[in-house]
Amino acid sequence: MSIDLAVVPVAGRGTRLLPLTKSQPKEMLPVGRKPVVQYVVEELARCGIGRVLFITGPGKTAIENHFDIDAELIALLRETGKEELLAELAFEREDVQYLYTRQRRQLGLGHAVLCAEPVVGSQSFVVALGDSIIGLHAQSRVVRTMIEQFHWQQAEAVVALEEVAPAEVVHYGIAKPRGKPDDVFELDDLIEKPSPAEAPSNLAVAARYVFSARIFHYLRRTPPGVGEEIQLTDAISMLIRDGHKVLGVRLGGGQRRFDIGNFESYFSAFAEFAIADPDYGPALKQRLWELLQR
Ligand code: G1P
User: What is the domain count for the chain?
Assistant: First the structure.
């Protein structure tokens, strides 16, 4: 049976983006015209996902409101002759069912995924981190490829991987490939935030995963790791060590990951998406060019 459920953890406090994130979720920050999490859901819907389970936390209700069908707003736009703006709300009608549960204690990403177990049960599922967009304007199909590989190769987990600069490995889960790393390959291990000297490669986990329900067995047994948090990476590493098949799929063909978790990459993502906007991009590019001449 194909996978149609995605778990989207959005419970993190976004402390690296303070004061921006004091009273609004980082997943609701605008990148060009849309909030981050809308790109994430649109990407998942394009990859065949029909149910999205958000793992939320304190201060995240704006996410739930964003995906509600806002009948009052629709009526107001009709009454005031602004029908053309209704197209901007078309995402509300996406064929997706939304589910929400809370991570009641901030114990890390692995713990957030474990909070999905009562809803997920024995199904296989996708995990998509709510603060990362894959591909310009989220055009990536990598999740679809990952689901296909998961079934075809009868894997227990598949992770998306992206090459990063050697000095950047300290920020990511880093893959140890088994053999030569092609576009799709088996993993020998996965290490969370290693030092450059410890890193077995520069292939970093890129915010998208596919799992069988077996991952819950390992998450329940994962002790706190880096940052005293229960790390998803450590559970995957235990899965591999027990002889289960875990695959890495590289983001191919210009499908970069846009990280909205810190100012440096947030500013850069905003600029890139805004410049690519069909209506406002050309004028912005001109303006930026003028500013750079000063
Ligand atoms: C998390 C994961 C890490 C992964 C990263 C980007 O880290 O723990 O393995 O590489 O997301 O997908 P965080 O950004 O929450 O520190």
Answer: 1
Nearest CA, atom 15, ligand 1:
109
Q: Which atom of ligand 1 is nearest to the CA of 204?
A: 10
What are the structure tokens assigned to 17, written together?
């983006």
Ligand 1 atom at minimum distance from 231 CA: 8
The reported pLDDT for the residue numbered 71 is: 83
Atom of ligand 1 nearest to the CA of 226: 8
Q: Note the pLDDT tens digit of each residue in 32-81.
A: 999 999 999 999 999 999 999 999 999 899 999 999 888 888 888 888 88
Q: How far is the CA of 202 from the centre of ligand 1 (A)?
A: 14
Whether the pLDDT of residue 1 is over 70: the answer is no
pLDDT above 70 (res 259):
yes
Mean pLDDT of the chain: 93
CB distance 266 to 17 below 8 Å: yes
Give the pLDDT band of residue 179 (cuts 50, 70, 90).
confident
Q: Which of 133, 146, 205, 250 to mutate to test the pocket of ligand 1 (most atoms within 8 A of CB)?
A: 205
Residue 291, burial from CB neighbour count under 10 angstroms (0-12, 13-18, 19+):
exposed
| Pocket-forming residues, ligand 1, beta carbon under 6 Å | 109, 129, 132, 172-173, 192, 204-207, 231-233, 261
Three-state DSSP at 218 gives helix
Question: What is the amino acid identity at position 51?
Answer: R
CA distance 169 to 82: 48
Say which CATH number the domain at 113 has.
Answer: 3.90.550.10
Domain encompassing residue 90: 5-292
